[in-house]
Structures are given as C-alpha cells and as structure tokens.
C-alpha cells in the first residue's frame, strides 16, 4: 500500500525539510517560517468577522474567540518545531514519548468530561491507550504504515483525538444512564444478576450512542465534506486517487480505535460503580 500514497508524502515532507531546516548557522529557517505564516495570519480576518458578529449579537464570546485563535497559533507553532525536531531524530523513543504525551492529555480531557466517574482520568487514559495501541500495532504489522515518526505520530494523533471524544462520551453517558435507571439495576442485582448482567442494556445503549457519530461520519465521508487528511494531501499536490487511499485507511483506523477504547472504558468503569458486595456505589451517583 505504501506505493500508492506514502511515496507522495515522503516527497512532500523531504521538500519541506529542505525548505525549513531546524538547525543552522543563521536564522534563515526562521525567516522562511515567518514568510509561511503570512497566509495563516491573513486568514484571521474571518475570525475577526466572527468576533464582530458575536459583539453585534451580544453573545459575549469575543474574548473567548480571540484567546482560542491565539492559543491555536502558539500551540501549533510550538508543535510544528517539536515535530520537526522529532522527525530529524528518527528515533523510536521519541515516537513513544510523543504518543504517551498525546494519550496523557487526551485522558485528562476525557476524564474532565466524565468528572463524576471515580478515577475518570486514569480510566480514560487507559482506555485510549489500549484502543489506539492495538489499532496501531495491527496497522504496523500489516505494513500499512512504516514505524517512523513521520507517519506514526500524525496517525496516532488522529486516533487519539477521536478516541478521546468517544471515551469521554461513553463514560459520562454510562454513569448518567445507570443513575437514571438505578431502580432497574438494583432490582436485577437483587434477583442475582452480576453487575455486567444488570447493566447490559445501559452499556449497550451507551456504546451505540457513543459510536454512532463515528459510524455515521464514515458512511457519509466524501459525500458531504472532504476529510482533513484527504484535503491536506490534495492541497499538498497529491492526486485525488492517492488521497482517497489514505483516507480509507484513516476511516478504518478511526472506527477500530474508537470501538476498542469505548468498550474498554465500560469495563474499567464497572469497579467504581459497584461495591464488592455487588451493590450500586450510591455515592458515585449522588451528585
């Protein structure tokens, strides 16, 4: 599969490295970087349009919009230089370090969304790590992607971001669903059901709701909008046929990682929802 789209990406990235060297005796790389930022800065005009509309409609989001775009500029600029450094090292250790950093941030964010779940950040991090690691391992073993920073880090970032959203929704929804149907769950437990049996319907409903957006997006990909990976390749000079080949791989890995992460999250949540005597832990559902 590498012959279809990886060769194009290699050529483009090699060209970029030649244009923006990370280490040098002068500041030519900084000048090139600043020149490349002219268009991104010009694009902020639409942000100021949004700010003006927010002000006219008294939405009170002007400050939040400006802060958001400033953070985006700073964060993306920093990560750009960090990735350039990692790509030049071509070391597996840097791949794992970057991957674990992304998983840590994603676990914290997803855990914040499900803040009423005990040890939510740890559960979210472990779920995201499991789902994305298993999916990435399969892709590497099948030679879909080579194990190099240039491919693994961007691919892992897409999977981690998608799994973060699904995992956060799964944890929050499962806890809320059990809380709303505590009487049914407690009745099932009193009749001798295990925690898994007593919450089977809640888990099933939660997983369907959490995974439906990912599945629906896959169904309509290319019909409503062109996804980011495909758009980036096309704008970078790749042919549409090469771009769709990569996008198909991306959609496949999104479904795989999200499904594994969400299912693992439900299993890891159970110990916090029940006591050792197979009773609901009421303090978890009291808030």
3D structure, described in words:
There is one protein chain. With 287 residues, this protein is mainly α. It has 13 helices and no strands. Helix 6 runs parallel beside helix 8 and helix 7 packs antiparallel against helix 13. It is globular. The N and C termini lie far apart (51 Å). The N terminus is likely disordered.
Question: Can you lay out the helices and strands and say which pair or pack?
Answer:
Layout: H1 2-19, H2 28-36, H3 38-42, H4 45-56, H5 62-89, H6 92-113, H7 120-141, H8 149-180, H9 182-190, H10 195-198, H11 200-219, H12 228-235, H13 240-273
Could you tell me how far the N terminus lies from the C terminus, measured between alpha carbons in angstroms? 51 Å
Oligomer: single chain
- Provide the low-confidence segments as ranges: 1-6, 8-25
Q: How many strands, what sense, and barrel or not for the largest sheet?
A: none
Helicity range of the residues? over 70%
Pattern of helices and strands: HHHHHHHHHHHHH
Could you tell me the radius of gyration in angstroms?
Answer: 22 Å
Structural class of the secondary elements?
A: mainly alpha
What is the mean predicted local confidence, pLDDT? 85
How much strand? under 5%
Q: Which overall shape is indicated by the principal axes computed on the Cα atoms?
A: globular
List the keywords.
mainly alpha, 287 residues, disordered N terminus
